[in-house]
Amino acid sequence: MAKCAICEKGAHFGCNVSHSHRRSNKMWKSNIKTVKANVNGTVKRIHVCTSCLRSGAVERA
Predict the structure, then answer these.
(1) With contact defined as beta carbons under 8 Å apart, do 34 and 47 qualify?
(2) How many CA atoms lie within 13 A of 13 on its CB side?
(3) Residue 57 to residues 8, 16, 35: CA-CA distances in angstroms?
(4) The pLDDT of residue 1
(5) C-alpha distances in Å from residue 20, one per residue of 16, 23, 24
(6) How far is Cα 30 from Cα 15, in angstroms, rounded to an integer?
(7) 3-class SS of residue 29
(8) Which helix (H) or strand (E) holds 55?
(9) Which one, of 45, 8, 55, 46, lies nearest residue 30 by Cα?
(10) Residue 1 vs residues 4, 30, 46: alpha-carbon distances, Å
(11) H or E segment at 23?
(12) Closest CA to 30 of 54, 5, 4
């Protein structure tokens, strides 16, 4: 699973809890996109979450 190169956001883990309160493992995946971005003046492909893209933390190429 990819992590965000800006904020290090990755997968989160927890439990599904059914109506009868039985528990099973669950994984929430972050919305991470592969983007061409300017990194120190060069264009690179990096993994970035959509919240960093919307906030303008990444300069796209």
Answers:
(1) yes
(2) 3
(3) 13, 33, 13
(4) 64
(5) 11, 9, 12
(6) 16
(7) coil
(8) helix 50-55
(9) 8
(10) 10, 9, 13
(11) strand 23-28
(12) 4
Per-residue pLDDT of the chain (61 residues; tens, 9 = 90+): 689 999 999 999 999 999 999 999 999 999 999 999 999 999 999 999 999 999 999 999 8
Calpha distance 12→29 (Å, rounded): 7
> Which amino acid makes up residue 3?
K
Cα–Cα distance for residue pair 32/20, rounded to 1 Å: 33
Q: Of the candidates 27, 26, 30, 25, which has an alpha carbon nearest to the alpha carbon of residue 7? A: 30
Instruction: Tell me the three state secondary structure of residue 7.
Output: coil
Q: Nearest CA to 31 among 14, 46, 9, 57? A: 9
The tokens describing 39, both together, are 């990194």
Q: Which amino acid is at 40?
A: N
